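Forum: Protein Structure Q&A
Topic: Joint prediction for protein chains with partners

I've read a bunch of threads here and the consensus seems to be that you should model interacting components together rather than docking separate models afterwards. I'd like to see that in practice. Below is the full input, 394 residues plus whatever partners are listed. Could one of the regulars post the assembled result?
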Amino acid sequence: MISERMQKQIDFIVAIDKLKHITRQNVVIGTTRNENDAEHSWHLAVMAMLLSEYAAEKNIDILRVIKMVLIHDLVEIHAGDTFCYDEKGYEDKAEREQNAADRLFNILPHDQAQEIMELWREFEDMRTPEATFASCLDRFQPLLLNYNTDGHTWKRPGITSDKVLRRNDVTEKSAPIIYDYVKELIESSIEKGILKR
Amino acid sequence: MISERMQKQIDFIVAIDKLKHITRQNVVIGTTRNENDAEHSWHLAVMAMLLSEYAAEKNIDILRVIKMVLIHDLVEIHAGDTFCYDEKGYEDKAEREQNAADRLFNILPHDQAQEIMELWREFEDMRTPEATFASCLDRFQPLLLNYNTDGHTWKRPGITSDKVLRRNDVTEKSAPIIYDYVKELIESSIEKGILKR
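Posted by a regular:
Agreed with the consensus. Here's the joint model:
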């Protein structure tokens, strides 16, 4: 017979399958289909594997960065995706997401619920080198996708290059070489006419 | 200006976006939509975080397991998904996948191309505790999805419980407690009439 502990772990693994339903604002390259949070989280984890040499802080704990990006959007299963330029949506985002975290993570055995909660809080608080680097990837990946899909999300009213750059503020200190590239990409996007100055 | 090294890394990160197009045989829970390889890889990585206590080998390198599951299906971008019960497809699978690996991984700078190639070969060869545990997760995850989607993939002609169990052979030694659960799940599936004996 399966232990109570294992049953909780399996219940959680089945519950988070729903992350594959949560669509984001950007589309998958070469398609008109919105990316979902599971795909996005996978992409960030591979980026963490490959780009950690650009983290300003040396000896960053790459396993913790990967764990953080793998779980950082789970709360959206209950709280939904808040568009990063939606000021109204941001007003109650923190409360909605904390409730979602309590509800979802507590499916797990207590020790693991606590571990995931701490990883998620660390990511949200952006106070450790691992969390700021994870955040920088979380901003960089949609930028790469928008650049390669003719600025899909940037076509919305009110999206301008300064807002896109500001969204990548965390990268300036946490990964300056990536930040230089972000600025190049934004300039190139303006020149190509896929992002408003 | 971006370095040649970084350009190669970004080119690779953009190229592997295609993993989100590669559909698998099973569907996402609660939908009739086929899961794709990026979603599957993300799910495995979270499972690796949560289930490593069941690996027979203690002190398993969990970072290496996670890296392996994150990249294990990348070759399918060029080689396509081979259904695990398709005997004909398996005849030239190894050759197709090696060619795909050479083509895809070599977009990266040499040292990283080599790291990913080694991780992928380690996964395929199933000779280390990390690789067998990764393999066990790769078999367990579709079983969980099929169990929760009325045996979606098991409805195909010729799929029987002994084939499904045999597919999980690696789990018997690499994670015996998960293997016990696999057997329970298979029995329960037969009772529910969603898997043929």
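The longest helix of chain A spans residues 129-147.
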